[in-house]
Amino acid sequence: MKKLVVGPVLILAAAACGAAAPTVSPTSQTASAANRATPTPAPVTIKFGQVGSISDAAIFIADAKGYFKEQGITLDLQTFQSAANMTTPLGTGELDAGGGAPSAGLFNAIGRGVNIRIVADKGSLTPGHGYEAVLVRKDLADRVKSAKDMKGLKVSIAAQDIVPEYSLDAFLRTGGLTIKDITVVPLAFPDMIAALANKAIDVAVPTEPTATRILDAGTGVLITRTDVVVPGEQTAVILYSEKFASQNKDAAVRFMKAYLQGARFYNDAFDKKDPAKRKEAIDILAKGTKLDAALIERVVLPGIDPNGAVNTKSLDAAQQYFVQKGSQTKAIDMSKVVDTSFAEAAVKELGSYR
Fold first, then answer.
1. 121 and 151 belong to one structural domain
2. 234 — phi, psi (to 5°)?
3. What is the CA 150 to chain-centroid distance, rounded?
4. Model confidence at 235: pLDDT above 70
5. Is 243 in the same domain as 314?
6. Residues 254 and 328 in one domain
């Protein structure tokens, strides 16, 4: 005789007759899935070198908005006069990451075997983001209207053998001149204001907010903004030490994820012109740079790529200028220096910015 199996049938029948089964709300299911998908990141302190300039905007925003905290990161912010001063501590691993302007000094150090990686954009001269300007002294404005009029003049930049020198040379070439046809006077940006006023220099090439301050003072007249001279120029980058990049990859990706969230908030605020985000971002930048919010409201801000993309062609053009000038010993292979893997990993998690 065959045995009748009734267990499953009775269970199904009971369910069909309305026996109540435990229910789980969609919200709790989603929360449970999210908790499984995103475990709490391991706490880590990252030493980050910064100049504290306007191109540190995405760092300031990511820190203020808690994006680093969400990634389990405590930022140990260390201030440097320039990215060139970060080279040694980045090379030894005393500094995990940093940000600043590329220079002949940085490229020479990499050429000597100091392993530093360029991992993301921190500031660029994309169209409409000409935060670097060429300004002529007001009393010379009638006769110095373009590059061809600048032969023999005293022109101030923040330092020699940095990317802004390359953009100045590119501007001079539009008038048939080169850097050799002027006298370069290195000055800190704030000092350019007084130097124009007392006629110690003829032309200044500052970034913001110094450019707007000079225009406000009435001592200088705008000739051009350099986004129309060298469109897309890579003026500032995020740097990783080799030790941080190779021995702490998880934290390096988490840092990048938080940084790009800051960059995206910045783009929402200033490119997409979201009014609420713009106001919040201006307040954050005012606090981070110790500048007046009303001033930041009026300055021309740098471009910051929301996906962290680096303009490698721009970096190569700058180094070719340094090599030709003689301040850089030899050209380096940018494909081995620019490491996009961290930004790509972060974008994979965040999704591409639209």
1. no
2. -85, 100
3. 31
4. yes
5. yes
6. yes
When mean pLDDT is compared across 24-33, 284-293, 304-313, the lowest value belongs to: 24-33
**pLDDT tens, position by position, 120-149:** 999 999 999 999 999 999 999 999 999 999
Distances (CA, A) of 41 to 117, 194, 283, 343: 24, 49, 29, 18
Per-residue pLDDT of 323-334, as tens digits, reads 999 999 999 999
User: Looking at residues 248-265, what average pLDDT do you find?
Assistant: 98
> How many helices and strands in the chain, by DSSP H and E?
16, 10
On whether both 210 and 309 belong to a single domain, the answer is no
* Alpha-carbon span 273 to 55, nearest angstrom: 18
* Best CA proximity match to 292, nearest among 233, 212, 221: 212
| Residue 100, domain extent | 44-125+233-350
Q: Is residue 246 part of a domain?
A: yes
Query: Is the same domain home to 239 and 310?
Result: yes
Residue linked to tokens 């449970």 = 32
Residues 150-192: pLDDT tens digits? 999 999 999 999 999 999 999 999 999 999 999 999 999 999 9
Give the CATH number, domain containing residue 282.
3.40.190.10
Domain co-membership, 156 together with 195: yes
Cβ neighbours for 27, distance < 8 A, ≥ 6 positions apart: none
Asked whether residue 242 falls in the same domain as residue 111, the answer is yes
Q: Identify the pLDDT of residue 38.
A: 61
Q: Judge contact between 309 and 118, C-beta under 8 A.
A: no
Q: What total number of domains does the chain contain?
A: 2
Query: Euclidean distance between the first and final Cα of the chain, in Å?
Result: 70
Whether 14 has a pLDDT exceeding 90, the answer reads no
Give residues with Cβ within 8 angstroms of 265, minimum separation 6. Answer: 58, 61, 62, 65, 277, 281
Spatial distance between the Cα atoms of 66 and 53, rounded to a whole number of angstroms: 20
Asked if residue 14 belongs to a domain, the reply is no
| Greatest Cα pair distance in the chain | 115
**119 and 237 belong to one structural domain:** yes
- pTM, two decimals, is 0.86
Is the pLDDT at 13 greater than 70? The verdict is: no
- Residue 71: inside a domain: yes
Is 29 a member of any domain?
A: no
The percent of the chain in helix, strand and coil, each rounded to the nearest 5, is 50, 20, 35
